[in-house]
Amino acid sequence: MAGIAVIAAPPPSTPRDFLRRLKSGDQIAHLVTLIFAASVFLVTLLLVYELWIHSGASRAKFGLGFLFSSTWDPIAEKFGALPFIYGTVLTSFLALLISVPLGVGAAIFLAELAPARLSNACTFLVELLAAVPSVIFGLLAMFTLVPLLREYGEPFLKNTLGFLPLFQGPAYGVGYLAAGLILAIMTFPFIISISREALLAVPREQREAALALGATKWESTWQVVVPHARLGIIGSIFLALARALGETMAVTMVIGNDPGIHASLLSPGYTIAAVIANEFTEANGDVYQSALVELGLVLFFLTMIINAAARLLILLTTRKGAKQA
Amino acid sequence: MIERNARRKLVNKAMLALTAVCTVLTVAVLFLILGFLVWNGGRSLDWNFFTRLPMPAGESGGGMANAILGSGITILIAVLIGVPIGFAGGIYLAEFGGTTLPFLVRYTADLLNGVPSIVIGIFAWTIVVVPMHRFSAWAGGFALSMMMVPIGLRSTEQFLRAVPNSLREGALALGASKTRTVLTVVVPAAKQGILTGLILGVARIAGETAPLLFTSLNNQFWSQKLNEPIATLPLMIYTHAISPYEDWHRQAWAAGLVLLALVLVANIAARWILARGVSAQRG
Questions:
Q1: Which helix (H) or strand (E) holds B31?
Q2: What integer best gives the mean pLDDT of chain A?
Q3: For the domain B49-282, what is the CATH superfamily, name and number?
Q4: Longest dimension (CA), chain A
Q5: In chain A, what residues touch B87 (CB-CB under 8 Å)?
């Protein structure tokens, strides 16, 4: 950091010169704003450092085996992250399975078909949906989605697809399926609003060329416009994935809190964020607490990688669009 | 050939209709959420909700006055920490920045923005709760400020950059110093955008629950000091919703309705300010 501070306030040649500059205040303003900006960078570094330090006891005891062990036994002080990683990845995957087709479909409608006014109005409503706090999604899911699943949804799945291992066991309502559904609802606003931007950035000539060759509206959209915007669409999916992986409250309220690995989607499970939310204040003992912090560290790296990929993809499409426009 | 074209037309119509169905489904979700909350929350909401303390478990009645005030206090702490960093940092990025540091700051701000809120909670716990040996309003406010900084930083930078360079050149040509130019010309020109960023930032942290779970904890009573656990609206919704008591569920719905109304009004207000600013600049 010292190097940067020197660039910001070069040593003045004479004391008088220094005073004159101070009077104008520009150097001070530069330095002050620089300190605030640098603090953002330092705080983020501090975050990683603190997570690393506070997970020390757990890292020393379990090493890399932490990631591959499926025991979670606070009394024997044996901790493994696998059930939580499994639950996090499974619920996020379920969510994307539902929200990607739905979100991309809606984005296509809003970008290609809907008149501008309708498109803007719908996008506004969808973006409002993204602003709804996650605890409210959890509240709704607990009292509407879970009873519906228990009474109708899960018995129906068992009767029709019960021969698959995915849909076996008792219908509790809470579990992987409920968490996946609520995450789907929470992620499609991101997919819709960013995919729509990517589709709108496709140059008009691309559409006209396809239509002039005799393609139908759908063929021009699906075979020309969507492939052209694919990086942005994939970016939006990655962003939604990062959100789903880190989502805490709504999932905690419907996941069922069972630290095991189950094939059935109807079974209660656990996610990384949910176990931290539920057990952190009750964790007694250094190893227990640091195991939870280490779970936080795993979640941090997981979302960081996905987010970086998302931003790169979105950046690439908008650049490409700008170049061709 | 004719048959093939008929099929293509059919596929065209079917797929386009399907995308419309997707849109209707997704937009309908918002109205379903609003409907459920207004229906369940509206029945439960009364004047007591805003003026009384929560009742002990199992007893009916009471309200969440302490949580409403507590949310206000933690948000205020978050604003006092987060806004100066976001605003001054944004000015640096847009007006003073070089090359290396702004890149690092932008990158880490985006990184911080993507950090799951529960991890922010752990961070605030290690920084504030562990040294103080107690859960406190300070810790909750600090956690929320960490979520607000990246939003404030990037929106300030974005809107300052949108100010035309001719304004800066005009002020500099009149002999104003750079600082004076920024503070009296550039920032006022971008004030609507910056205000929007502030409102959106507050709206985002107002509903956050996960960072508060083990920082400000919860409190069934009024908090006397800022170094005590403090009740907040989102956390009250959580604890009441997972409780086994019917009357607490009722309170959770009422709190959900109040929180959602606040967040949506803030979002709509932010957009309105921005839209008005754009049309004023054009006209």
A1: helix B2-44
A2: 87
A3: MetI-like (1.10.3720.10)
A4: 87
A5: 36
